[in-house]
Amino acid sequence: MIATIGIVLVIYFLGMVFIGWYGRTRTKDFESYLNMGRSGGVLLLMGGCIGGQVGNGFVVGGAAEGSVVGMAGASYGLACALACFLVAFLLNDFIYKGNYMSLAQYCHKRYTSHVPGTIYDLSTAISSIGLIAGQIMAGKALFETLGFSGTLGAISIAVVVLLYSQMAGLWGAFATSVIQTGIILVGLITTTFLLIGRGAIGTINNAVAAGTASPSALSFEGMATAAVIGLVVPLFLGMVTDQPTFQRVNSAKSAKISKIACILSGLVMIPLALMPPFIGSYGAVVHGASGGNAFFITIMQELPAIACALIITAVIAAVMSTIDCGIITMSTVLTRDIWQTALKKNPDEKQLKNITLGVNIVFLGVSTVLALSATSIIGLLGAVYSFLAAACFVPFAGGVLWKKGNTYGATAASIVGVCTVIATWLGLSLPMASIFPILPSAIAYIIVSLATQGKVPQAAAT
Description:
The protein is mostly helical. The protein contains 18 helices and no strands. It has a single domain (2-451), classed as Sodium/glucose cotransporter (Up-down Bundle).
């Protein structure tokens, strides 16, 4: 089996590089590198939306949580699915019709200042490091399960992604996502029904009755309500301000196509989210699997070699595709928004390519180091979304909903939100620590905006 998985992995890696090479014609300039020239169809956009989740917290993290808390491990995956509906019905038309490639563009327009937008860009860049590290952690877990060096696996993934992302841009990320999403979808459904057919539900129930498995192995009671809220709400708020969300919507052929893709993605992910924790729970009972290796250990023990190899390779490919989206996010917020817009630089295409390459190398290196030191995929992703929500949600929502919000209020909201998050990381105990920072951020936004009325120019709320 190890040999089969290794061969399929190598073939898959080469295939992704080929897709990058093939897709190089889709990135004729820097702008098309970032948004595919607004040519995305439903299938391509669904691949980008679903593929951005299924490789890390959704599958690997969901199985890891399922091995400990049972079906409550689906909370992250279900939150991802519901966030798709949130984007479809509340944000899709706003983003597409405003032609916002990033939230920073909206901030520039709304607050007539580069300061709030620049804070968003820097916050996105910092959070992207954590998101990319979460993907690399999933790949590291696989390589360790196979008996290989986790460090070697993490570095290999980073290098391959760097190669094809530089060639195909957003189109390459979405094109590869369509393939691996299809394979994972079939693989998860096949694995789940195969385990059920083998009596997995009865096996788990017997283990619960015997006291050798958690009472919540097949229920949603393994995670306290507060813990679920603390995980789900930051994800919702983070998705609202998430850079890949803006780029995915903006890259569609039309607002209608983007909305349909978001809705269909959510519908697909709801049942899909229940499968990894079930697999992880079964793996914990039968194979003693736990942590980031739970998913891989279980399918390696239960599936034929070739089927196992395809699913595992597809998960790794999805991980890599998500990293690719993170890299393109870096290019958007650091090269396009800050270097070109805020600093008013006008580099030619060759200079843009070199700048992007340098940014990608640095941030991939930092993310890889973080991935090698972190311990929990879900924990890392939760912290990232909490940080992003604290820095960006109030300035965005406040700008849309309240005409009196201004540059000073937006800046104060971001600073207060980020400082509160950092304080919780340093040990400050707060109720609902993952979402509490939104409250002081909102208070700062209101107070400072009211105190500085008339001192800065304002644009009408959009």
